[in-house]
Design a protein that fits this description.
globular, Farnesyl Diphosphate Synthase, single chain, 2 domains, mainly alpha
Length: 315
């Protein structure tokens, strides 16, 4: 579905490598790792598809770079906070270079974002990115707060996944609309698509973390549960079905043998897996509905396919 924007994505990799250059060897090395690791490049892809959808010029490159650099900065900080040993199959930066270098390299990326925003000469785009960064930080901290204070709720869960994922995906789309001077209807539609698609994407990630196939995922299931995180299917057991056993497993971070398997069994027994899939489908369909204001095009078809993919994604 990204065939339409392959040239854009190739140009993006070149520009990203340029933005990550530094005269300091450790920062340069971390930048090279980030550029070389690749990843899904979902946020830049959304920016380039928005450009095609709107029929605009080259504004999408600035947006793609700003959003991806902000995302990459958050990953450097997240790995340290989560004590994650690897990132995309490579040793995490803080494990290789230490905490100070990793944190300051993340700050270096944030400075690059500020430079891109200044070059855009758009106060509206700058405000959009500032708000996205604010919500990203709040989402990450709220996730830890929920586990620490045990204030689990659906409202908090959706604030977390919107901050962690949806707001940056929406910014990649809406940012292009802002810089292109698109009308408010188009701008609102792109933001709505990004938020709904982002919720579907993160909910599917959460679903697979507990109910996915370990071979397809390439990692053990239950990672979120072991960190005391209650994702949507688990919250259904705790808050809708009032299942004390589920709450106990979450609070002890699935530390007892068989806890993850027991949670999976409970989710399937009470039908929480099907309820979670239904909500993912509803979010994907809401994303697709948001595109109704745009005429049919290859870009619209690609965005539609992207949202539809979340319903059946297995890794």
């Amino acid at each position: 579905m990204f065939d339409l924007i392959q040239e854009d994505l190739s140009d993006f990799e070149t520009r990203l490598a340029q933005e990550l250059r530094s005269s300091v060897a450790f920062i340069e090395a971390i930048g090279e790792d980030l550029a070389g690791a690749g990843g899904k490049r979902l946020r830049p892809a959304l920016a380039f598809l928005a450009r095609r959808l709107l029929g605009t010029g080259q504004e999408a490159m600035q947006v793609a770079l700003a959003v991806e650099l902000l995302h990459s900065a958050s990953l450097l900080h997240d790995d340290l906070i989560d004590n994650a040993a690897t990132r995309r199959g490579h040793e995490a930066a803080f494990k290789r270079y230490g905490n100070v270098v990793s944190v300051m390299s993340g700050d270096f990326l944030l400075a690059k974002v500020l430079r891109l925003l200044a070059r855009s000469e758009s106060s509206a785009f700058t405000l959009l990115m500032a708000d996205a960064a604010t919500e990203l930080c709040e989402g990450e901290v709220l996730q830890f707060q929920m586990a620490a204070l045990e204030n689990y709720s659906f409202e908090n869960y959706f604030k977390v996944i919107e901050g962690k994922t949806a707001v940056l995906l929406a910014a990649a789309l809406e940012g292009v609309a802002i810089l292109a001077g698109a009308d408010p209807v188009a701008r609102t539609a792109l933001r709505r698509f990004g938020m709904s698609y982002g919720r579907a994407f993160q909910m599917q990630d959460d679903y697979l973390d507990l109910l996915g196939d370990e071979q397809a995922l390439g990692k053990p299931i239950g990672g979120d549960l072991r960190e005391g995180k209650a994702t949507y299917a688990v919250l259904l057991l705790m808050l809708k079905h009032h299942l004390d056993e589920a709450g106990s497993i979450v609070r002890r971070h699935a530390s007892q043998g068989g806890d993850v398997a027991r949670m999976v069994a409970l989710i399937r027994e009470y039908g929480a897996d099907q309820e979670a899939k239904a909500r993912i489908r509803a979010e994907a369909e809401a994303a697709i509905a948001a595109l109704a204001v745009f005429p049919d095009s290859s870009a619209k078809a690609a965005l539609t396919a992207l949202a539809q993919r979340e319903i059946a994604r297995v890794a």
